[in-house]
Design goal:
Layout: H1 3-31, H2 39-54, H3 64-87, H4 104-115, H5 125-128, H6 131-161, H7 171-196, E1 207-220, E2 238-248, H8 253-262, H9 283-307, H10 311-338, H11 341-344, H12 368-381, H13 396-407, H14 418-438, E3 443-444, E4 447-448, H15 451-477, H16 479-482, H17 489-504, H18 519-548, H19 565-599
Antiparallel strand pairs: 1-2, 3-4
Helix pairs in contact: 1-9, 1-10, 2-7, 3-4, 3-6, 3-18, 4-18, 6-7, 6-8, 6-18, 7-8, 9-10, 9-12, 10-12, 10-13, 10-19, 12-13, 13-17, 13-19, 14-15, 14-19, 15-17, 15-18, 17-18, 17-19
């Protein structure tokens, strides 16, 4: 790996660390109902209006079952709303391009995707969704699905910090405060900056412009019914067609891009996502958006430390996440900078390597392999899924890094809220393992970890891997599933494994070589996304409720300190070991064997 690669990684992580404490402190004040440096004077009246309209009392709290039911009901209503808007978008305003209704299977998949914060897209946004659908359906869900994860985290942390109570907060209050005081202000700031850098924010129709270099192609002629016209020999009749103009899609882009990154949503306004210059115009916006992907998940680690009255705990979780991030980012950058060894063994007449800058296939020239690889690992570490390059074109081992990052259950920073409570579940598993080794009842932050917590933790740890592998197996043995991959053998298997890993872990990115907008993949993926999201949220809230009812156990000489390098190592090892034991056989059939074939 070159010096440039090391500098880029160091700069990215350094800025992320610098922003973690101030934002984390602010979010702790949001969830602890402390003064917010005057912001509550501006947004407080809005908050009270929302509570009044919804019939919610700010002081009323819920036990874990009430919290879970409220969460599920709200998300179900959002899912139905997104589905309905897509199906009737042709009858609604703000549709200057005349978009037709979205098919039933695609509408179902997209509704589930945005309700669960996955934002998997089997469609081209600028060719499928009207402006109103993009804003009212998708962008709104970008806010509230992200706020759902943050609300569940707040409840989980209260379960750890409180003692001998049954209430863990109000879902409605946590949802509103997450949206109003965290996501909305940050999104406004980001949207203004992106707009200043050239990202469109308009309701005007798509633009038709003259191309710089006109070209021509042979177009197949069709009759009035749309059927190809054939000559006497049965061959299709073609005609040379000149291309002198191009339609440029625009729209309310900047506002959606801001929240898609900050909320770890990832759904792009355009088909090629953040590789599109209207979503990500230059190196400056690329860095800002890459920081936005991990900004809130990283800062929530410090929020956790503040709320449990020991910031060392938050930094320990952050350190474990950072170690796993670097363990994936450094090899990914190195593999992409090295390029394809088969191509690099060939030289032209000037004795120059064919890939002097690394593997540029599927990457924007303005970004290059390093920025593309860092983004790939960040977006799959978080449950973001936005892409600034096509992961399908990465080298086999370079593409394996973001794939494996997803398969670690999206806990390396992870989605806003859900990544941290996922990592805290692994922390509970780690202290349980440590307790078994020394023959002592495990404790985490003064709460004894007993059989009930471990049963719920087992569900959370096992459900996403099971969904990914079962979904991949179904795709591999189904005729409809086998029609999806555009590449044969090992890489085709990688495309299916990546898609199932993405949807089974609420990520949303894709290898892009899989034709996934079919009834088979839309239905299968929708089921995976639903189970992956809510079969984790409900057990996590159950653990929070159980811990909240327990007494605080004073630390003793036998208590495992959970803020030390030893515990960080144990936590990293637990996450890596579960990921390796679960997915190594599947990875061996895909990217690993593909690398060996390429090298041979």
């Amino acid at each position: 790996m070159t010096l440039h690669g090391w500098i880029q990684i160091a700069l990215y992580l350094g800025v992320l660390v610098a922003l973690t404490k101030p934002l984390g402190t602010f979010m702790a004040r949001v969830y602890e109902f402390k003064p917010l440096f005057g912001l509550e004077k501006v947004l407080g009246p809005v908050e009270r209006i929302v509570y009044s309209a919804a019939g919610v009392k700010k002081e009323d709290e819920q036990d874990w079952k009430g919290y879970a039911l409220a969460c599920l009901a709200f998300n179900l209503l959002g899912l139905l709303a997104v589905y309905g808007i897509q199906r009737v978008q042709h009858m609604l305003p703000l549709n200057p391009a005349g978009m037709t209704p979205v098919s039933a299977d695609s509408s179902f998949n997209t509704a589930v995707s945005f309700a669960t914060n996955t934002n998997w897209q089997g469609y081209a946004g600028e060719q499928t969704m009207s402006y109103l659908t993009q804003m009212v359906a998708l962008t709104v869900q970008n806010f509230v699905s992200a706020a759902t994860g943050m609300a569940v985290l707040a409840a989980f942390v209260r379960g750890i910090s409180r003692k001998t109570v049954s209430q863990i907060g109000s879902f409605w209050v946590d949802l509103v405060r997450s949206t109003l005081y965290v996501l909305l202000p940050l999104s406004v700031i980001y949207a203004v900056i992106l707009g200043a850098q050239g990202v469109p924010q308009t309701f005007s129709n798509y633009k038709t412009v003259n191309v710089v270099q006109p070209s021509s192609y042979q177009a197949t002629q069709v009759d009035a019914s749309g059927n190809p016209v054939k000559d006497a020999q049965g061959n299709a009749v073609t005609k040379a067609t000149a291309v002198t103009q191009q339609t440029i899609a625009v729209g309310p882009v900047a506002s959606q891009i801001a929240i898609k990154q900050l909320g770890t949503n990832g759904g792009g306004f355009f088909n090629v996502n953040s590789a599109h210059p209207f979503e990500n115009p230059n190196g400056f916006t690329n860095f800002l958006e890459a920081i936005a992907i991990l900004l809130i998940p990283a800062a929530l680690c410090y929020t956790f430390g503040v709320m449990v009255k020991d910031t060392r705990q938050g930094w320990a979780i952050f350190a474990a996440m950072a170690v796993l991030f670097l363990a994936m980012a450094i090899p990914c950058v190195a593999f992409e900078q090295a390029g394809n060894p088969t191509l690099n063994s060939l030289v032209d007449q000037r004795e120059t390597a064919l890939q002097p800058g690394g593997n540029m296939e599927g990457k924007e020239a303005r970004l290059g392999p390093v920025n593309s690889a860092i983004w790939a690992v960040a977006t799959t570490g978080a449950s973001n899924g936005s892409v600034n390059s096509m992961h399908d074109s990465f080298t086999p081992l370079g593409g394996m890094m973001p794939m494996w990052m997803m398969q670690l259950s999206e806990v390396v920073f992870g989605g806003v809220g859900c990544g941290l409570y996922g990592m805290l579940i692994y922390a509970i598993v780690a202290v349980f393992i440590a307790g078994l080794m020394v023959g002592r009842t495990p404790e985490y932050l003064g709460k004894k970890i007993e059989s009930y917590e471990m049963k719920m933790a087992s569900i959370i740890v096992l459900v996403p891997p099971a969904l990914c592998l079962i979904g991949t197996a179904i795709a591999c043995v189904s005729p409809a599933g086998l029609l999806g991959p555009l590449n044969p053998v090992a890489h085709g298997f990688s495309e299916m494994l990546y898609a199932m890993s993405s949807q089974g872990n609420n990520n949303g990115s894709a290898f892009a070589g899989l034709s996934a907008n079919t009834p088979f993949y839309n239905l299968l993926g929708g089921i995976l996304m639903l189970f992956s999201r809510y079969w984790i949220i409900v057990p996590a809230l159950a653990i929070a409720g159980s811990l909240a009812r327990k007494k605080q156990v004073p630390a003793s000489s036998g208590t495992l300190a959970t803020h030390t390098p030893l515990f960080v190592s144990l936590l990293v090892g637990t996450v890596a070991l579960v990921g390796a034991l679960t997915f190594l056989p599947a990875l061996a059939l895909g990217p690993i064997v593909e690398h060996l074939m390429m090298a041979h």
